[in-house]
Structure formats: C-alpha cells, structure tokens
Amino acid sequence: MSFEFLSPVSDIVAAHTALVGDYALGKQIKVHTEDLGVPDLDKVDVAIIGIQENRNDVDFLGEKLNFDTIRKSLYELFPGNWASKIVDLGDITPGDQVSDTYYLVQEVLSSLLQKNIIPIILGGSQDLVYAQYRSFDILERMVNLANVDSRFDLGNSSQPITNLSFVGKIIVEQPYNLFNYSNIGYQTYFNSQEEIDLIEKLYFDAYRLGEVISDISIVEPIMRDADIVSLDLGAINSVAMNGLTASPNGFDGREICAISRYAGISDKVKSFGIYEFKNFKNEETASLLIAQIIWYFIEGINYRSNELDIKNQKSTLHYNVPVEDEILSFYKSSKTGRWWIEIPFISSGNNKLKRHTLLPCTYNDYERACNQEIPERWYKAKRKNEV
After folding, report:
1. Beta carbons within 10 angstroms of residue 279's beta carbon
2. pTM of the predicted model, to two decimals?
3. What is the C-alpha to C-alpha distance for residues 57 and 153, in angstroms, rounded to an integer?
4. Which residues are within 8 A (CB) of 110 and not within 5 positions of it... i.e. 6 or more apart?
C-alpha cells in the first residue's frame, strides 16, 4: 500500500526543524512535509505516525487533535548513540466514519510491519488499539498485547466499541489472534470486581500500580513477551502531567520512561502506541513528557540483544528444576543474564501457538521454583495452551 492518504506534518513543525541544533533529532529524522512528500522507507527502522481520531472517546466533545507541540519537543531532543533510521510519516486524519479511520490505520501499520518498521503511534482515543492489533492479522499468528493503563478496558463487548471497551472487542471478535493480555499498573477502584474476575478466568496477567512502582523491573519480562504495547496517558499521575490528567495516582515521569525503555529493549515488540492525548491546557509540559517517552522507547530499540532464538544459542545455560510432578525447564542468556522458562507445548493442531513455548521470566522465578513454587505466569501460559 502507498501512503498517499497520510497528511504531512504542519508547515510550522517543518519550519521548526530548521531552528533546532545541528545534532538534534529534528535534523536526523526524515519528515513527511508538503514540499518533500513521504520519505523513502528503505532501511528505515522506526516510523512516527499521528492518528487524529478520538470520536469513540466516551467523553468526546468534538475537539480536534494536534500533535505539533509533541513533534517540536521531540525534534529538539538529542539522540543517544543510535543506529536507528527514523522517519515521521505525518498524520492519519479522521475518515467519514471511525471505521474508515480504523481501516486506514490497519492498512498503514500492516505495510510498516511487512517492511519490519516499528511504528510509534501518537493517538487520540485508545480504541485505536483495536486497529493497531488488527494490523497483525497479516502475520497469521497469535500475538501478545501489553497495556500500560489504570483500567482493563474490557467494557461491554456487545456494545459499540469505545476507548473503555476495546480489549473486550479484541477478545471476542474474529480472527482470534490474541494469546495473552497483560495490564501494567491497574488501579483497583477503576475496575469492577467482575472485570478483575474475568481477567483471572482468562488467565491474563494484571499488575497493580503499587506492585509495579515497588519494583519497576518486573515490567521487563512482560514487555519481552509483548508484540504490541499500548500506553494510556491517563496511567500517568497528575503531578507528572502538571495536573492535567484525571487521576492523582499513577506512574511518575521517571517510571513511565523506564517502562517505555523496557518496551523498546524487547526484541519482540513490533508496535508501540501512546494514546488518550488531549489538547492539554499546559501543552508544553505534557508534550515534553510524551517526547521523552518516545525518546526512551527508541533508546531501548538501539539496545536490543536479538535473543528471540535463545534456546538454540550455544552459549545459553539450561537448568531443569523438578517442582511437584513437573520438570520446569529454565534458560539463561550468558550475554544479558536474562531468563526464560519453557511452556510445555500441547499439540492441538493450532500452529499459531508454537512460537509461545518460551516465556520470559526473572531470576526470582527460577529461585522460587528451586523452593518448590510454580511461577504464576508459567501456570497461566500453560493453561492457555491447554484450552
């Protein structure tokens, strides 16, 4: 597919690139402008794309979205020691119907996936994750979704999709390509007991805000197993966003950037979306934080270890741990010190599941197994394989 339906970045942003420092990102990112058109995507690693769609937000009041301030903030930042080639493709503007926007998002993201380009999505309402997820249909395999969010967003899947029900739609609508859903940072009082019970019943993973804040490193293996990452800006506390989000509780700026970096480091993450952007009153503070979230994700990409095939690497260490009537099989990378645990593959004839036989874990999981405790994530993954 060509990208002729994308709107170029505004002339204001294009002009701003001339004003940034010689070594700043604005001088290194190839930008879709009115004059130059869509950049050449040959050998590109990362593509930034805005989606100005927010009509399925339950609080939608007709406002139009503008990502100019985020772009200007990002272009002013200096890259690390990066090898990644980055483009900014501009924006997808709203279609006649929201379903038209979804279709275009799915087509554009699918094209990027086929070119092994990682999209960084600046989004309006979070129901756009549905289109982000559907773009993986072309791969014809199961995928894992990690959602940094104070809510599960399961909603009522029998009703039209909203930014609070897109996960429910993903679960129930064909083709069924969702293997695992992980919520990072949920706040109990924002989620009904029925939703919490359903997450448990489906063997999905959910990590409370306090649990993640007390040890941010637990996010690393979750992200290492994710194909798609969605970040709801409402998961950030109001202090970090300068009082601009609805909730006083949430991640601070340092924590959300650490989570973003873990997503970038993951060899498996192929699509990263930042959603629930509003036209904030103090736009500069919010935009600078979002720009830094993007910066840390790209920083992570540049430190990827290419350990997707860890089991077959000669230097990998292998440990068998008998627990109850199971033999748990652990693998440790001698390069990065990261750990994986093997899930017994159930031959159900569903070829989509075969790639899920190794589950990222931590050294703590290995230690607990040695103390005869079965890791909860391993148990859930095994149960999903059996269904």
Report:
1. 12
2. 0.95
3. 12
4. 1, 135, 136, 137, 138
